[in-house]
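Sequence of Cell division coordinator CpoB (Shewanella aestuarii).
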Amino acid sequence: MKYAVLVAAMFLGAGSAVAAPAPVEDIAGGSSDDRIARLERIIKAKQQGEFDMQRRLDALQKEVLDLRGITEQQNYQMEQMLQRQRQLYEDIANLSSKAEPVISSSAENDTANPITTSSLGETGSYEAAVNLVLKDRKYDEAIPAFQSFIKQYPQSTYAANANYWLGQLLYNKGEHAEAKAAFSTVVSQFADSNKRGDSLVKLGMIAEKDNDPVGAKALYNKVLKEYPNSASARLAQQQLAALNG
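Predicted 3D structure, token representation.
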């Protein structure tokens, strides 16, 4: 009896060894349910990868469209600016031809202050001063021209732009104190001017040159707060990045 039990136990042990093969990671191994489960996991992982890739492509496409829109807007603004400049040149030419007969010989010889010796009036005087910069590139002569205009027409609709032009010309010459006064006039007296943001940026740049980084950062942050998404804000952000770098 004991012998029969021992033989039966040996057969059962051999059968168990045959029925339990070593586990494998291959997809072909295991039961049908296991293989189906592994296939489903593979398919799901592939689908998730494709979904993530499509999402990244959609994001990149949106960025391209946004950049294209910004470029088109900038091109439009540039074209508008060039058109206004061409119109300004034409107006100056017409005004100059009309004013020529009334300009005396002494005025023709007076190069120190060409605007005050003419009879162009408010608009003509401003446009002639701008013309010295844009067309004739006589920057030194443009400075007294703008100064004369500001003194004669302090409440003009062109006064903010005239002060900005004057500040820019003085800044380019390295006369930072005088430039600061002109830009500060735009900031304090012409809150609605489209040159106010640009003037704040210029004041920040002057503060940098005066070794006042704290003051410069305050001015740049003011631009970012009051004129977000503007060209002035982008320039202020660049200046801030340079200071913080």
